[in-house]
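Q: My labmate handed me this sequence with no annotations at all. I'd like to see what the chain might look like in three dimensions before we decide whether it's worth expressing. Could you predict it?
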Amino acid sequence: MCTSRKHKYCTDACLGRYLEARNWNLNKSKKMLEETIKWRSTYKPEEIQWDEVSHEGETGKLYPANFHDRQGRSVLILRPEKQVIYILENAILNISEDQEQMAWLMDFTGWTLSTSVPIKSARETIHILQNHYPERLDVAFLYNPPRIFEAFWKIVKYFLDYMCGLFLII
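A: Here is what I predict for the chain of 170 residues:
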């Protein structure tokens, strides 16, 4: 299952995250990992280049913080957009070996209904995060969320796997 190019991805720590994400059920973990390997071979997140996503970074919608949270985790600051894979892949490459999870700070400053991410896009992003990056997100902080977010959250939370490790602090 984990050969050649994929071998670099399938570390002991990675396998442990998949097992933990599926409550140590070997068959479910194996299936999840196989689906991720298939997704990675199609999507090729490790081949995404800065020029493909630079417009997101230039607009300040997603960027790594120059600080860590109280537990020493890397913090990604993002304004909700669907282009998170590039930054996530690079954040993973740049975290220390003893660090598995990270914290996110989602900055909703300036958010409006006209600039919001469609529910379909949010659902796809959540699917990618929980199925292909299990146990990577420890906590997500929402900064200045709009009131409408409560209604949005009531819809989106049903798409979350109970084991995805997403804890929102508003």
